[in-house]
Amino acid sequence: MKIVSKILMLTLAAVIILPGCSNEKTTQSGLTYNLVREGSGEIPEEGKYLVLKMTYGIEDSLLQDTEDSGPVILQKNDSIWNSGGMIHEIFGQMKEGDSVSFSVDAQTLFAKTWKQQVPPDMAPESIFNFNVGLDTVLDAEGAAAFQQQLYDEQRKKFEAEQEVQLATDISLMEEYFEENYIEPQVSESGLRYIITEKGSGQEANPLDTVSVNYTGYLLNGQVFDTSIEEVARENDLYNEGRQYVPYEVVIGRSRVIRGWHIGLDSMSVGDKATLFVPSKLGYGPTAYGPQIPANSVLIFDVEIVDNK
Description:
By secondary structure, this protein is of the alpha+beta class. The chain has two domains: about 10-140, Roll (Chitinase A, domain 3); about 185-305, Chitinase A, domain 3 (Roll), CATH 3.10.50. It contains eight helices and 14 strands. Strands 1, 2, 3, 4, 5, 6 and 7 form a seven-stranded antiparallel beta sheet that branches.
């Protein structure tokens, strides 16, 4: 199936078309839109799946472009779309191959289409500009296959980006090791670690529940979290409402970063280690609070104090 790769991109000037022009259309509820390009297909039947490429933004500021986020897939439902001034009513009148543009104020868009309040930092009269193309029409089976294709493509893209970032992270870690005279052990995952003190307790294995004291910091030495009260106070992180006790982790199962699961699995009770975690094993391309930027290499000093 050939999917058009680009939606027709319009400048704000191109969107503003004088009323009464032959390409201006009106829905049953009174929404107006401009037919920018007429397709050769038919108006989809009820229940079909519409693959829409679109851009939209406030005034001339772009908020979303499906070229980056992936197309929007909607099942046509005129009984809902034609009630109450939803912008979907416009989508329901489009033929395969059509491209349209329209504008709607924030108050109307949020109330009638998104069914929520206008955010407090947004003026209700703000104008949203939409450019929408009906790329193709699918049945249920075709829509499921198309969504799987999109998922596979996005996963491959994400994995490729992670590999590029891993190379960057490894380079940063190698510089850190050279500057600090560190010779770490290396796992196949990309994790680097050093055992700083060897214990004599039980070996940690997958699904074991271990109690861990830890301090986490960035390559620049900035501490962002710790289970140790003294360290928290020293780094202006102390929170009176928090209990500073070892953190319990079920290896391979708990919701902690992958770097922890991999590192703890190579330790025993009493071991102290430093884990050097590339971003793909940490928080990846997402910033985690104000202290951990996106794609950060993380360092954790950890000690397993118990294995239940």
